Backbone:
């Protein structure tokens, strides 16, 4: 007889594993099916995020930043480094160890919360009384019956037409995280989040990096002031060669390298020769192998599973969350949806406000924001005031030796309610949390200005930017 569960989650990335844990915490009989395999063929829970996304990229960003500091930053502090060397194999092994620790951590959490785990592919086998039949193929092959199904099957890298990934010369995100040697010349297509983060890693380790971006504008999703500052730092100070308005004509790879023919800026055809090429031009939803069609699960025109504001799909008791549905493709967005859906299945309330999801780009300096950009406010005709404070005027940033960037607040002109907060600077990823709390609580800029912030800390720049909205900064 089929094993029966209240909730079966298909996909064990940050959306799926969190949904399964929350469902179990709420007293539901929960199962999670995930097909990701580690190098030895065993389970590797955590999805894209843990295996080839957030976690390994941040491990390499940290290692490469340490290397760059040792090479160029320590001397200013009076620390001399002699005989500095790079052991890339060790750097990659450390990254793999961090990934494994996270994989094992999720398996432990499943045991702790009594989530049943099935290693294999999950697909719809048809309806059942009061729910669905789900087939598991793989090592744990069997059929489950589910009251509710949560689809959390994530996304895959989008290939460039005419340049299929081989992960030898033309690399997706997995290949970009595992190059066996530092390429002399690295090409990147797409100056989005992956292009900038992975471009930074390999530049710090010694590669000469050229990024070809289709759009004429740089980081259009970020506030324009932040994007301008980032452009200046990445191109002028750090030497990333970013070509905007690039139209790729042809990509040819052979055993030795990759040649890319493209045009840009109205000029004739140009050629980029590189040893390896990362293609990071966005990701596509993954519904492969789910047998969505056999049960009539509706997809939208772009292949995302169609959901309403509460992650309900076109089928009764079938929910979908994370990268496979609309909204930003971010791990924390997937997690929040996982919690909300588990709670709704248990009869509680659950809601995710897509307007207060923070964005972070883990370059150096980091970029982080929440809420509206100034260009969005202008386009919407909003009346707003802005306040900006540079890290140059922050004591902690000076002590750290990293005074690049600023904090910018945008607040409603009439009510002072916060509309957006934008940071480019050290530890922006951590500082943005204060802005998210403030926005969730519908705070005014003055609320932040009235709060005591520890001295000396980078967070004082948040208070000062809030003060700047009322044109009363104290330290600038
Ligand atoms: P996924 O993490 O993709 O997980 C889906 C899981 O489902 C996978 O394990 C897959 O094997 C499994 N699966 C799919 N189909 C089936 C099936 N039929 N049966 C069984 N299992 C199946 N986001 C951030 O917020 N911060 C970051 O710093 C960040 N860095 C990133 C860096 C890189 C290089 C990349 C590529 C992405 C990064 N992201 C980051 C995005 C983040 O990884 C995704 O938004 C997140 O993983 C989405 O979670 P998910 O649960 O929806 O899907
Ligand atoms: P992206 O959407 O961030 O950037 C893709 C870039 O490629 C865009 O600038 C786009 O204009 C450009 N592009 C598209 N087609 C092109 C073409 N044919 N030629 C040249 N340029 C082209 O996507 P990316 O970097 O692949 O990352 C995928 C997703 O993963 C991100 O959207 C993000 O959600 C997530 N991610 C999040 C991170 C974080 O939170 N720090 C880190 C890395 C990824």
Residues:
């Amino acid at each position: 007889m089929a094993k029966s569960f209240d909730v079966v989650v298909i996909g064990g990335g940050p959306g799926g594993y969190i949904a399964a844990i929350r469902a179990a915490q709420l007293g539901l009989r929960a199962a999670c099916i995930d097909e990701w395999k580690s190098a030895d063929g065993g389970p590797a829970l955590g999805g894209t995020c843990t295996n080839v996304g957030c976690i390994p990229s941040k491990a390499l960003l940290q290692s490469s930043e340490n290397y760059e500091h040792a090479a160029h930053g320590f001397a200013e502090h009076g620390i001399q480094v002699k005989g500095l060397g790079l052991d890339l194999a060790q750097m990659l092994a450390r990254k793999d160890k961090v990934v494994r620790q996270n994989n094992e951590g999720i398996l432990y959490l499943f045991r702790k919360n009594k989530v049943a785990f099935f290693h294999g592919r999950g697909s719809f086998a048809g309806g059942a009384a009061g729910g669905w039949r789900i087939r598991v193929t793989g090592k744990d092959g069997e059929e489950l019956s589910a009251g509710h199904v949560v689809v959390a099957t994530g996304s895959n890298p989008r290939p460039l037409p005419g340049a299929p990934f081989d992960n030898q010369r033309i690399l997706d995100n997995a290949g970009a995280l595992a190059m066996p040697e530092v390429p002399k010349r690295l090409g990147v297509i797409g100056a989005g989040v992956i292009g900038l983060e992975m471009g930074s890693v390999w530049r710090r380790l010694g590669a000469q990096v050229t990024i070809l971006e289709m759009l004429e504008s740089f980081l259009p999703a970020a506030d324009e002031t932040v994007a301008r500052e980032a452009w200046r730092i990445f191109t002028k100070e750090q030497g990333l060669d970013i070509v905007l308005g690039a139209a790729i004509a042809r990509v040819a790879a052979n055993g030795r390298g990759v040649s890319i023919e493209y045009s840009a800026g109205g000029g004739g055809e140009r050629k980029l020769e590189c040893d390896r090429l990362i293609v990071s031009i966005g990701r596509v939803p993954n519904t492969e192998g789910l047998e969505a069609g056999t049960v009539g699960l509706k997809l939208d025109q772009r292949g995302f599973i169609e959901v309403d504001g509460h992650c309900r799909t076109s089928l009764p008791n079938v929910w979908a969350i994370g990268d496979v549905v609309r909204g930003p493709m971010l791990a924390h967005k997937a997690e929040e949806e996982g919690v909300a859906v588990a709670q709704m299945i248990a009869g509680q309330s659950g809601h995710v406000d897509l307007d207060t999801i923070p964005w972070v780009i883990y370059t150096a300096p980091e970029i982080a924001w929440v809420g509206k950009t100034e260009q969005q406010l202008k386009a919407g005709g909003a009346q707003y005031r802005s306040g900006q404070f540079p890290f140059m005027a922050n004591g902690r940033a000076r002590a750290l030796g990293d005074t690049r960037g600023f904090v910018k607040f945008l607040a409603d002109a009439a009510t002072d309610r916060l509309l957006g907060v934008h940071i480019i600077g050290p530890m922006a990823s951590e500082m943005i949390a204060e802005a998210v709390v403030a926005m969730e609580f519908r705070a005014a800029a003055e609320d932040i200005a009235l709060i005591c912030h520890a001295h000396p800390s980078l967070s004082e720049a948040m208070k000062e930017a809030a003060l700047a909205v009322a044109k009363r900064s104290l330290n600038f």
Remarks:
- Residues 160, 189-195, 197, 212-215, 246, 248, 280-283, 328-330, 360-362 surround NAI (ligand 2) (CB under 6 Å).
- The chain has 14 helices and 22 strands.
